[in-house]
């Protein structure tokens, strides 16, 4: 992403998170990024494109990371732990963008709304496949993988309302605590220790 | 609550959930409830009062129910299970109101914003007190009760995005599943079966 584009998206996310998408004035955004409307829209498109790019960027990033983790993790429990750390890090690092997403994704229309919801589903499906694979191997309790995964995703996703982005140690510690609880809750045998991190 | 007032709040919640608080036109609400602006505001106040009443009503209801459950439940695990069922029932029954809350509570100002955030804190504190009491009695693992409770609240609260309000059986089943996972994850001894429901 070009630095100019990144700077515009960051400012737009901060403005939308603060005032809501519908409430946010574009004149204010022009002021904050120091560009006139024409230059602004040259870089991004229109106001709805800004909202779309804010959600799309984070969701595609998370789908990419998790696809890679799922391909490389030694087993399903380790995979859930690594995906959990990656998710909580991202929410802490991009709390503003996730606030905008959860607050106003419904303000998107047509193809943009469809794509953002599809990305959210694709992300949840990665978790569901890992969970279902663990259940099929007799590691996790087999009941209702979709509902179980929506539960653990809720533990993490709800954190955009309270997480403080003050460092990896904290978010990793919280991610590990939630995975300890969740895995102890669903594992059919005693749960293994956290895997070494990949970063 | 008077039937007229209840009808106005219900229509306002549906409108705000659909179009966002800032995006929702009051002319549309007048049309939908069949009242002119003056009559509308006579019943509720102004547009921000509508937003405030939508959140306040559900939050006060949940604080009230949970305070009662916490006073009457036989033990901490049973208490968490009953509070969980009550919460998921309420989210399924009032998904529209919770959508408005999470989407636009930030659009509230001054005393109204302060009061809504205080109610949300008071509700979480009821859960935290129950959890801390269980930890003090050696039932639950003692690590980080606040973070643990934010996790289980996340499992439930995130459901406003996906829960279908199609009957008690379903929401109770999901609440029980999440409590099974959470309690198995935090209990220091094997977890007891679900208690009989109080309703």
Characterize the structure shown.
- The structure is a homodimer of 199-residue chains.
- Helix content of chain A is 73%, strand content 0%.
- Chain A is an all-alpha fold and 199 residues long.
- The first copy, chain A, has a domain at 51-186: Orthogonal Bundle (Tetracycline Repressor, domain 2), CATH 1.10.357.
- In chain A, helix 4 runs antiparallel to helix 5 and helix 5 packs antiparallel against helix 7 (110-136).
- The radius of gyration of chain A is 19 Å and the shape is elongated.
- The A-B interface holds A 18-23, 102-104, 106-107, 143-144, 147-148, 150-159, 161-162, 174, 177-178, 180-186 and B 18-23, 102-104, 106-107, 143-144, 147-148, 150-159, 162, 174, 177-178, 180-186.
Query: Got a strand count of chain A?
Result: 0
Assign the CATH superfamily of the domain at 51-186 in chain A: Tetracycline Repressor, domain 2
CA-CA gap between termini of chain A? 23 Å
Oligomer: homodimer
Strand content of chain A: under 5%
Which chain pair shows the most residues in contact? Answer: A-B, 37 and 36 residues
CATH architecture of the domain at 51-186 in chain A: Orthogonal Bundle
Ranges of chain A where pLDDT stays below 50 over 5 or more residues in a row are none
Average pLDDT level of chain A: 90
From the alpha carbons, calculate the radius of gyration of chain A and give it in angstroms: 19 Å
User: Which structural class is indicated by helix and strand composition of chain A?
Assistant: mainly alpha
Total number of helical segments of chain A? 9
| Biggest sheet statistics of chain A | none
């Amino acid at each position: 992403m070009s630095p100019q584009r990144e700077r515009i998206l960051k400012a737009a996310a901060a403005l939308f998170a603060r005032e809501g998408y519908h409430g946010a004035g574009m004149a204010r955004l022009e002021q904050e990024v120091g560009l006139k409307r024409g230059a602004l829209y040259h870089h991004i498109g229109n106001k709805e494109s800004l909202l779309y790019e804010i959600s799309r960027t984070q969701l595609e990033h998370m789908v990419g990371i998790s696809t890679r983790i799922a391909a490389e993790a030694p087993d399903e429990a380790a995979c859930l732990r690594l995906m959990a750390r990656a998710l909580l890090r991202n929410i802490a690092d991009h709390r503003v963008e996730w606030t905008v997403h959860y607050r106003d994704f419904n303000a998107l229309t047509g193809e943009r709304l469809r794509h953002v919801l599809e990305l959210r589903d694709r992300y949840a499906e990665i978790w569901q496949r890992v969970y279902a694979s663990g259940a099929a191997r007799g590691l996790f309790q087999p009941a209702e993988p979709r509902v179980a995964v929506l539960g653990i995703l809720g533990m993490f996703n709800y954190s955009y309302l309270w997480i403080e982005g003050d460092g990896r140690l904290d978010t990793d510690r919280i991610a590990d605590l939630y995975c300890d609880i969740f895995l102890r809750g669903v594992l059919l045998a005693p749960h293994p220790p956290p895997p070494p991190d990949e970063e």
